[in-house]
Write a structure and sequence with these properties.
It is built from 3 helices and 4 strands, in the order ααββαββ. It is globular and about 55 Å long. The strands form 2 sheets. The chain has a two-stranded antiparallel ribbon. Strands 3-4 form a two-stranded antiparallel ribbon. It has one domain (about 1-95): 4'-phosphopantetheinyl transferase domain (Ribosomal Protein L22, Chain A, Alpha-Beta Complex). By secondary structure, it is of the alpha+beta class. It is about 30% helix and about 15% strand. It starts with 7 loop residues before the first helix and ends in a 17-residue tail after the last strand.
């Protein structure tokens, strides 16, 4: 089923990851792909298996390849986010000289 959404290399990487880290790797891949296709404005009109992102836990977020547009990877940077324990997210930016600043919001029901 994942072969429909992920590239052959992404599927191979996912299969090689220990079972205890597979879910994290899956969501790393999914959120990084989603960030990129939203940033380029194509949404799901771009097949998800035609570009590759890093996904292994602990590996920096990166656009690895784009089918038919090898120069594309040099134009984009991805940043992994952990908004809360057990959650992952990603941001894609068409630039490399930038810095992400995150704020932590806390609220109480008092």
């Amino acid at each position: 089923m994942l072969s429909v959404f992920f590239s052959a290399r992404e599927n191979a990487t996912l299969r090689a990851i220990p079972d205890s880290r597979k879910l994290e790797a899956f969501f790393n891949c999914w959120t990084r792909k989603e960030a990129y296709i939203k940033a380029v404005g194509e949404g799901l009109s771009r097949p998800l298996d035609q570009f590759e992102v890093s996904l292994a836990p602990g590996e920096p977020a990166q656009l690895l390849s784009v089918e038919g547009a090898s120069e594309e990877t040099a134009n984009w940077s991805l940043e992994a986010l952990v908004p809360a324990p057990g959650y992952v997210a990603a941001v894609a930016v068409e630039e490399h000289d930038w810095r992400l600043i995150c704020w932590q919001w806390m609220w109480s029901r008092e």
